[in-house]
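your task:
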Amino acid sequence: MGKQTDNQRDFFRCDIQLPFSFSVIRDKKIIGHYHGRTLNLGGGGMFFATDCPLLQPGTLILAEFMPPEGLKLPDEVPRGDFLARVIREADEEPDSRERHFLLAVEFKFLHKATRNEIVSFLNRYEVLRHKGEI
């Protein structure tokens, strides 16, 4: 956790596990209330695990980050609803007892200030992680 990886786009992704909830947008309807956890997060999107079987490339989700229990963070997680589009699927988590799907999403229609808030949060997280405070 905490390692930065290149997401092959304009932003680095930080390995961080944050819980989030999301709904699926399908046929102009909002479906369900599902849970996931990020495996990495960046200003342009995230890679995450979920047990929701409804996601495939092109699916839109509306996600909201939640503060993780027991993880000291530099400040609160970025607030608000984040519209994202699934861009790819990966294999299921190999060591999981439950069925989990791994997916990458890109954030859509994200204001520059919100994107900067995510990047700033991750930078502060990385500083604390490198100091051994997380």
About this structure: The beta strands are 4-6, 12-14, 19-26, 29-42, 45-50, 60-65, 82-90, 101-107. The mean pLDDT is 86. Helices lie at 112-130.
